[in-house]
Amino acid sequence: MEHIPVLLKEAIEGLNISEGDRILDATFGGGGHSALICEAVGKNGKLIAFDQDEAAMSRAKIRFKDFDKCKFDLINANFRDLDEVFRGRGVKKIDGALFDLGLSSFQLDESGRGFTFQKDEPLKMTFHNSDDNGKLTAEEILNRWDEESLADIIYGYGGEQFSRRIALGIVVARSKKSIKTTFELVKIIEDSVPNFYKSKKLHCATKTFQAIRMVVNDELEALRVALRDVWPMLNSGARIVVISFHELEDRIVKLFFRERKFDGSAQVITKKPIIPSKSETFLNPRSRSAKLRIAQKI
Ligand SMILES: C[S@@+](CC[C@H](N)C(=O)[O-])C[C@H]1O[C@@H](n2cnc3c(N)ncnc32)[C@H](O)[C@@H]1O
Questions:
Q1: 27 and 86 share a domain?
Q2: Within 2-70, where are the H helices?
Q3: Which one of 14, 79, 92, 151 counts the least CB within 10 Å of its CB?
């Protein structure tokens, strides 16, 4: 399925782009935001786009093959390494940055890496296609971590009220046979939670899957590092726009902006986060938990 960009107009307006600007899109995904950033910066400006997913970057290169609206640099890297990547390319300053966190529809629908509980796939949940050697995977967490650590992450990152029961279910199941696929995990979760919980609108595996994915990819730390490192690179007047889909991500952004406000280096543009309209969530249910925050470097 095509990825529908979330809060597209709000994000682009929030960046307050001028012709000739150099803008970072830290999460290229399907390139929905990047395409509009390119149009706004024009031929004298530049888009620098990151995505840690090789497949997303391959698609990006195809999508932008004949794109001549701006200069662009598409980089297959984790945004937590942006300091090093920028140094390597001689980029010192930028005029704005966008972070549209989480997953794209492609990753849910087509990655084959176990991001979704709707398909039976190996439990990887990593963003690397080719080489997972030595990298933490969902399978390793599920088969090796102790019960308490499992319960802690499922509760801490997923906010899952039945985290302890699910953790126990995982430990019991793996004592018989290693857990290898998403459907095996879904079955364990279904067998662990009470019946009423299975008839809720939100699938009973949603929070556990989200929690494990966030741990596999160390997503909260990557965000903290990237915000810290991108801030000194922003020119004065440059905006940073972050769209998050998880309460803990939003809290990191809110606190980071607040600290910059108190140290006198930022003006916070969004007193409260911008959320999608009813019509956007109707047309694109995946947008429903999005929150957008904007700060401007002074
Ligand atoms: C929600 S999608 C972005 C969608 C995009 N704005 C669009 O309109 O098509 C998030 C993308 O960010 C990428 N991503 C998530 N965390 C990342 C990280 N730490 N570094 C680089 N890319 C990341 C994912 O691989 C995914 O493709």
A1: yes
A2: 8-15, 32-41, 54-63
A3: 92
